[in-house]
Amino acid sequence: MAEYETPEFYPVPFPDGLPTIELQRLSLARLMNDDVDQARRLFEICTREGFFYLDLTDHPKGLKLLHGAHSVHRVGQEVFKVPMAEKYKFEPRASYETGLLDTGYKELGLDSEGNCNKLELLNISQAGFFSGLEDYTLPSWLAPQEALFRSTLQTANVIHNVILAILERGLALPTGAFTSLHRLVDRSGDFLRILHYPAPKDGKPHAHPPTPAHRDAVSVALLFCWQGGLQITDSTAPVDHTVEEPEDTWFFVPPLPGHVIVNLGLVMEVLSGNVLRAGKHRVVTPPGPQGLHDRLSVLISARPEENTPMRALTSPKIPQKNPEDDPSGGEEVLSAKEWGIQQVLKTVHNIRRQNNEPLSQ
Ligand SMILES: O=C(O)CCC(=O)C(=O)O
Ligand SMILES: [Fe+2]
Q1: Which DSSP string do the residues of 250-303 spell out, in sequence order?
Q2: For residue 360, pLDDT beyond 90
Q3: CB 300 within 8 A of CB 152
Q4: Element (H, E) at 234
Q5: Average pLDDT of the chain?
Q6: DSSP 289
Q7: Ligand 1 centroid to 121 CA: how many Å?
Q8: Nearest Cα residue to atom 10 of ligand 1
Q9: Where is this region: Disordered (predicted)?
Q10: ipTM over 0.95
């Protein structure tokens, strides 16, 4: 068995016979070695489904990230056991309701005893550690993991930027057009997130997906998971949730050992004038007997520096809006921070609506 394999994270195999999608597999080593064909495939995927598997086992940076994610998984197995009252003390930023969900604890569903029964998140802020602009202190039950979180965020930032550099070349943008907006030290909403989906107590799948259909309000997301549950859709239903995607348009993306699932976020749609596409996805209760086990995932996402104007960049490959087509004189351009808060709030409200909970809590 290869040293990066972690069979203990896979309590039950992914069941056969389910609708699954075979995402393309790209190689980190080939992307990092400027392999032209591999870069072309990456660009094409990002103009279509916006989801792919990235093999991390063929490059030292990839192996480093993989080991980091495994260690974070082990941390996740322990830290969610901390009493709820302690977890609530690790607060999200106090802007609007949720801020950018880049730091702090958040649960999305409680049982009658006040314990989380659906989904809880721990967010660790990259800017908190690296921007030098804040005094970022983790609660005592997370503080021993600071070095692990720092090194995992740092390695992920390198890989985010490998992908962003390929996308800026594909769009014929000047070198640095994307990467200079995603520096490790920027003030941004970048985060490392541990997600915990407790297994339903009655053993039956949740009536509603614990994470409903959405696209991430980020630039690039790196998702590690070990249980099934992640699904993507080929439905063209609008993302405003006025129309539900038909059930038969959802396909499972099974976890693949040694690989991270990469998905492009909505920021890249905006900056590329919709040439690049963010992948719509959701997370349902893990299928079959996997549903009897808690699900943990680790998500490491890059966002642009918080003052970045959220509008299309200029390039011959990016269709430019003609101001004469817009009698209102153009929409207000939000900063990455304002825009991100709006997007996160939409997703959180959608979860609450689905759970029949009041919208502000
Ligand atoms: O837990 C997962 O597998 C995905 C979570 C997700 O989509 C998100 O937090 O945006
Ligand atoms: Fe997501």
Answers
A1: EEE----TTEEEEEE-HHHHHHTTTSS-PPPEEEPSPSGGGGGS-EEEEEEEE-
A2: no
A3: yes
A4: none
A5: 92
A6: G
A7: 10
A8: 216
A9: 303-336
A10: yes
Pocket test for ligand 1, best of 53, 197, 230 (most atoms within 8 A of CB): 230
Name the maximum alpha-carbon separation found in the chain: 63
Mean pLDDT over 236-246 rounds to 77
- Which tokens in the block code for residue 304? 């642009």
Q: Is the pLDDT of residue 361 over 50?
A: no
Residue to probe by mutation, ligand 1, list 216, 250, 283, most atoms within 8 Å of CB: 283
Other Cβ atoms closer than 10 A to 321: 12
* Whole-structure pTM value: 0.95
CB 282 within 8 A of CB 297: no
Interval 327-355: pLDDT, tens: 555 678 999 999 999 998 888 787 777 76
pLDDT of residue 136: 95
Structural domains for the chain: 17-319+338-354 (2.60.120.330)
DSSP 252: E
